[in-house]
Amino acid sequence: MRTERGSGSEAAIRGRGTAGGPGAGPGLVVVLTCAMAFSMMQLFILGAFGPRLVGQLGISRTVLGLTTTVGFGLAALLSPVAGRLVDRVGPRRCMVGLFLLSALALALIGAAPGAAVLFIAVALGGVPQALANPATNKVILAAYRPDRRGAVTGFKQSGVQFGAFAAGLPLSLLAAGIGWRGAVWAAAGIAVLAGVWAAVALPPDRAQLRAAVPGTTHSRSGVVGRLAVFSLLLGCGIASVNTYLALFGAQRLGLSSTMAAALVAVLGAAGIGGRVAWARIAGRPGWAEVLPATLAAGAVGAAVLLGLAVVAHPLAWAGTIAVAVFAVSANAVSMVLVIQRAAPGRAGIDSALVSAGFFAGFAVGPPLFGVMVSAAGYGPGWLLVAVEFAGAAVVALPRGLRDARGASA
């Protein structure tokens, strides 16, 4: 049986929450979801508007691709610092800063005359990426009872997919009417408004508890370390799918550009549903510990289906849905586990360390996949993704088994 004692507001918050009180309704969930969406919006926009940027700014496809690697790499490096900052100054201030920095990064993209300013914008956008999970997780701890945190975490994690959808459809349609720069500036304006809304809607920052609970720091740091490695391997595989799925559909399966893009749309839509559903389940007692390994194992099968699509093309759709349901959703479940296990006063830094692993995977995975495809084709490439997911399952399994035995003792 675990007990958490100590003085300070967070210890009280962790036990009781404030669900049902002012600010803990649907409006707060929307703010959290928007924070996750805007934290990566600059990268989504660079991807969605890539053809326009290549044509009008005269940059190469290689340079455009490097923006994603730089963005996630910087977010991984900045995450530990961002986590400590959230624990020190509070999530409300950090989330307002997240929206304003996202707006500034988007405004720079809209004004960019060439590659140099794009890289500056991506570098600046690494700060909101690093702040997003620590700040939103701390808000969830402060505003919701334990029995609601899993579901709320699933909704806010789905914000990443909503951000990709917004860049790929509404903003793209807007760009057709007013130009891509106008569409990006419109997104920057919305980010500013979201920052104002966050300042009003979020619970006030409280004094943070510094001292750890005796006897728990070592065991919980072990959980965080294991989840960081799990997220690294998971991120490698997910990023490879995100980056190359449409290209695989067009080059290897002979799909039209529209149908290849539809694969990505299916991935996003299924990811939203999967994250919400599995995170809700993870919020039940005992489930969060065993789900990461289970979902990663399911993701292995999803990668195998993508590989088999080379000979049976319809399997690409089944594999895409399975990647979303298992791999993409596993990231949300890992955040539920972080919220449940974070030591008092350390929810920000613990969330940041796990996020750093995930961002590092996003920076490393696509280049490795690209090298494999260039050398041996898409079949071995998807096998590499399956191995990465299998590694994630192995990393997660031992801890899950020990927790399961402890819970049943």
UniProtKB/TrEMBL annotation:
Indicate the transmembrane segments per the record: 28-50, 62-83, 95-124, 184-202, 223-247, 259-278, 290-311, 317-339, 351-376, 382-401
Q: Which residues form the Major facilitator superfamily (MFS) profile domain?
A: 28-403
Q: How does it sit in the membrane?
A: Multi-pass membrane protein
Q: In which broad location class does this protein mainly occur, judging by the first location in its UniProt entry? A: membrane
Under Pfam families, the record lists: MFS_1
Report the superkingdom from the record: Bacteria
Keywords, A to Z? Answer: Cell membrane, Membrane, Transmembrane, Transmembrane helix
- Where does the record say this protein resides? Cell membrane
PANTHER family hit by this protein: CHLORAMPHENICOL EFFLUX PUMP RV0191 (PTHR43124:SF3), PURINE EFFLUX PUMP PBUE (PTHR43124)
Q: Could you tell me what this protein is called?
A: MFS transporter
Source organism of the structure:
Streptomyces humicola
